[in-house]
């Protein structure tokens, strides 16, 4: 029985994977994040939430619903970015009887395109 539980956790632990761990963009731009998930979960509800700790993040969008600024499908798109949008975000899959599977990305928004380009070329 213990072996079955361990194997089950191994098989389903990576059901959700974000495309990038850090995304950088600019004020007033649009950013997209791809939430890759196992095909087994295609009909499960998905959500996008904000917060450093996954257990305490605030849900922003939940399929099939979207808001004016946030559209959630398999790709999360956030438009009209502000510096206040900088932070940690999670894609999640709602699952019955087990912990939801989630993966994170850090969103960094700057209002200075030149500073971001300089950081890129200097390796920062």
TrEMBL record:
Q: Does the keyword Ubl conjugation apply?
A: no
Q: Which InterPro entries match?
A: CD300_family_receptors, Ig-like_dom_sf, Ig-like_fold
Q: So which residues are the signal peptide here? A: 1-15
Query: Which subcellular locations apply to this protein?
Result: Membrane
Listed GO MF terms: transmembrane signaling receptor activity
Q: Which UniProt keywords apply?
A: Membrane, Signal, Transmembrane
Q: Which PANTHER family match?
A: POLYMERIC-IMMUNOGLOBULIN RECEPTOR, TRANSMEMBRANE DOMAIN-CONTAINING PROTEIN TMIGD3
What's the name of the protein? Immunoglobulin V-set domain-containing protein
Q: Which organism is it from?
A: Balaenoptera physalus
């Amino acid at each position: 029985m213990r072996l079955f539980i361990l194997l089950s956790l191994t098989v389903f632990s990576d059901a959700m994977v974000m495309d990038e761990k850090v995304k950088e963009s600019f004020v007033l731009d649009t950013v997209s994040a791809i939430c890759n998930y196992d095909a087994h979960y295609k009909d499960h509800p998905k959500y996008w939430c904000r917060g450093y700790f996954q257990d305490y993040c605030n849900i922003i969008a939940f399929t099939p619903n979207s808001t004016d600024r946030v559209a959630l499908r398999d790709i999360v798109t956030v438009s009209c970015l502000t510096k206040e949008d900088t932070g940690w975000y999670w894609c999640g899959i709602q699952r019955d009887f087990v912990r939801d599977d989630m993966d994170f990305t850090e969103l960094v928004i700057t209002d200075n395109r030149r500073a971001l380009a300089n950081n890129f070329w200097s390796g920062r």
